[in-house]
Amino acid sequence: MEERSVFERVFGDLQSRGYDVTVGENYKNNEKIRGIGINFGDGDVSPYISEETIEHLYEVFDGDVTAVTDELIKTSEDLIVNLAEDTERMKEQLKDRNYIIQNSYLFVCKSDWNNEMLEDMYFERIDGTDLVLYPRLVLDNGCTVRLDRKNLESVGLRGEDVMDAARANTEKELEYDDILSMGFMVVLNVAKGGASVIAFPEYLKYVMEGMGWEKAYILPSSIYEVMMIEASNTISVDNIRADIRYINETTVCLCDRLSDQVYYFDGEKVSVVE
What is the pTM of this model? Predict the structure, then answer.
């Protein structure tokens, strides 16, 4: 008989103790990983704890599955308490006009992939592209919350004002001194806003000229970053576009995909390469 994995043994131990457990999937670095969640009743379901974490605990406790299960239960209970505290804190922050203005940042997405989400959002289109910018609130714990019209209206804020604040806050996060260059390619993102760096042409021009390029292509890696390469006649845009689509379909989870398109930057504005 094939020996059960550590994950399966811990799952079985939880069940034998009478816990309602489920196996779910999360993403880490765009890779799908499975985890265990525990339903403690009254709607208290713990976030999934990954198989990687469970295997690490197995090593820490010298192969003692019972000790791993005990630690998993304690960790899950702590996560629920922390989650409840974060939820209450978030509710208060969403009522605070000043907090929203000071902690809103621009995020970017492809408009026709996100029609449902954008229905109740205030957003702006990036001219010449299929991309839109919208505001998200970045909380103290690093989590982000979409700011829909209802949120903003409840505290008397206009969408235009929040977008202006988000743009100013995001611009302050642009990195000028430590840009990741691979010689032929530059990886660009903003710590709070990810791939929304594409909405700042002056910054893109600064990077492009720093590389000694006159024109550039911008490749959407994910909603977290974009890549810039020099635009030249020797590059096949069709091949690049095919590579982007393949990577999106095979390695980038659906919620993190930015676009299948290739974008062109002429030093002044970004546009879709047809």
Answer: 0.74
